[in-house]
User: Fold Nucleoid-associated protein SCATT_22990 from Streptantibioticus cattleyicolor.
Amino acid sequence: MPHEGLPDFTALTRRAQEMSNGLVRAERDLAGARFTGYGGGGLVTAVVGADGTLTDLRIDPSLIDPDDPDTLTSLIVAAVRDAGRASAEARGEAARATIDQVNALMAGVRRSLDRARPGRPADAPRGS
Assistant:
């Protein structure tokens, strides 16, 4: 229970711990995620991990033409890039979620400080 006029640091600490636990879970989930990309209308399939490391590559045998390796190369590159984009998007979403959680926690801290010091915003310079 906070003292009169002081922020509830116990609640803020509890919220920070909950946020930390959630971030650890999200990081663990993302680390095990796999992302699939396609080239040639699905004739080439690439799978990458969350870090972008290629973990699997499947090529439809009909694409293997010893006289035209450039087409196959292009389709492989397209599939790997597509999978990499999916991985990057997932990492970006996770980063945005983390930033949103930190911003929410900081907003709670500011509100607590504003309540503790009526008439002086939490972000006001110290000399005011």
Summary: The chain has one domain: 9-111.
